[in-house]
């Protein structure tokens, strides 16, 4: 027997390419911690939360996530874990394997609100907010999208005007994760000097955050409108290092990176559900996994899922090396979310009528990914980002 044959591992249907071999012991420890937490605290309840359209224990879950280092985990200092980009990606994967709403909670907290304060805030702002946010004692939200301005944030109408040394903030933001439970909001607004970011305590007079209901996607997630009715802020509420769209777009790029991994968590759960079902569900006297068409579906799903994981890992290594470009994040978000939702839809066909039941996770993941497909940049916007990078020609305007 050759040396290569002696060390060759058995084929693993859940890791057909041996991607786990690319992960360090520390990577695997982070992944296993997040997987176990999700199994203990989310999976027993998520179908009920989704059906009811609420996340009733969000404050409790946020504190638990803080305790295991999941909030702002790729940031350093201020109580943050200082994890690698690959480890943060693995955490997003495991959280979204439970539900996209849970990963969204973590992404908005860490990659948007905390990242904005950490990257663009003053030392006083960091000291005031980040330790409590890292511990999950303070929930944050990120206000960029408006009712009439989603893909074109430059057209935002929320405005902050000077009044002496203060700022007075007026306007609305829409589709804001964590909005009605947040203690602090990072809000982007037009000013006479261009777009600026503001750190807004949510107990400020004139601030309100009515929750958005009647959603058929991300139902186990808090989604709100933010309303600013002449909210008065002190001069030091401004993020001093962020001017123009560079600030919010860099935050979005960081959050999109988490989605590159997270979306594959939803896909993995749906694929594994379909695989298990195909092995046990019998029609015409034998398991449906023995039929050619079912095997073709499973093979195609496995190929796209694990190609996406290789892409996510590659982008994570580039982020850890400091060489990841925004266009490459768009590449990952475009491919992985698009393939993830197709995997969920294909898995649903294997489960047949059972695929629409909340007794199985597939339809829940598929409907959640309809939101993930849109937020943090639609398919069309990421196609245009790549189109501009490839041709050197701007098709946005």
Automatic annotation (TrEMBL):
Cited Pfam families: Acyl-CoA_dh_1, Acyl-CoA_dh_M, Acyl-CoA_dh_N
Gene3D superfamilies in alphabetical order: Acyl-CoA dehydrogenase/oxidase, N-terminal domain, Butyryl-CoA Dehydrogenase, subunit A, domain 2, Butyryl-CoA Dehydrogenase, subunit A, domain 3
Keyword Flavoprotein among record annotations: yes
Keyword field: FAD, Flavoprotein, Oxidoreductase, Transit peptide
Location of the Acyl-CoA oxidase/dehydrogenase middle domain: 141-231
Cofactor: FAD
Domain spans labelled Acyl-CoA dehydrogenase/oxidase N-terminal: 25-137
Acyl-CoA dehydrogenase/oxidase C-terminal domain span: 243-390
Family note: Belongs to the acyl-CoA dehydrogenase family.
Protein name: Acyl-CoA dehydrogenase family protein
Lineage start: Bacteria, Bacillati, Actinomycetota, Actinomycetes, Kitasatosporales
């Amino acid at each position: 027997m050759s040396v290569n044959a002696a060390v060759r591992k058995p084929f693993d249907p859940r890791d057909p390419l041996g991607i786990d071999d690319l992960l360090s012991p520390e990577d695997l420890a982070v992944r296993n911690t997040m997987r176990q937490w999700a199994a203990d605290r989310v999976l027993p309840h998520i179908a009920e939360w989704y059906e009811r359209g609420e996340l009733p224990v969000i404050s409790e879950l946020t504190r638990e996530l803080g305790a295991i280092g999941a909030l702002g985990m790729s940031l350093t200092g201020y109580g943050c874990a200082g994890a690698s980009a690959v480890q943060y990606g693995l955490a997003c994967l495991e959280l979204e394997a439970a539900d996209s709403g849970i990963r969204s909670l973590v992404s908005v907290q860490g990659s948007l609100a905390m990242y904005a304060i950490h990257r663009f805030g003053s030392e006083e702002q960091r000291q005031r907010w980040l330790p409590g946010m890292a511990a999950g004692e303070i929930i944050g939200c990120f206000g960029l999208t408006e009712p009439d301005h989603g893909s074109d944030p430059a057209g935002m109408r929320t405005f902050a005007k000077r009044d002496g040394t203060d700022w007075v903030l007026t306007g609305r933001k829409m589709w804001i994760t964590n909005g009605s439970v947040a203690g602090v909001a990072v809000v982007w607004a037009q000013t006479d000097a261009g777009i600026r970011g503001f750190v807004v305590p949510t107990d400020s007079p004139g601030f309100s955050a009515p929750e958005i209901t009647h959603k058929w996607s991300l139902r186990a997630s808090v989604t709100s409108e933010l309303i600013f009715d002449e909210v008065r802020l002190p001069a030091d509420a401004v993020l001093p290092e962020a001017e123009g769209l560079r600030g919010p777009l860099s935050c979005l790029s960081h959050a999109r990176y988490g989605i590159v991994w997270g979306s594959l968590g939803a896909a993995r759960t749906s694929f594994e559900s379909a695989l298990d079902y195909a092995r046990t569900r019998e029609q015409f006297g034998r398991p449906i996994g023995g039929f050619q068409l079912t095997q073709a579906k499973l093979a195609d799903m496995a190929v796209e899922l694990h190609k996406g994981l290789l892409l996510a890992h590659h982008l994570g290594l580039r982020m850890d090396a400091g060489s990841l470009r925004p266009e490459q994040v768009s590449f990952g978000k475009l491919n992985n979310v698009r393939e993830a939702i197709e995997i969920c839809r294909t898995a649903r066909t294997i489960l047949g009528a059972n695929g629409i039941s909340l007794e199985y996770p597939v339809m829940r993941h598929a409907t959640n990914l309809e939101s993930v497909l849109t937020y943090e940049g639609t398919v069309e916007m990421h196609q245009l980002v790549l189109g501009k990078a490839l041709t050197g020609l701007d098709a946005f305007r």
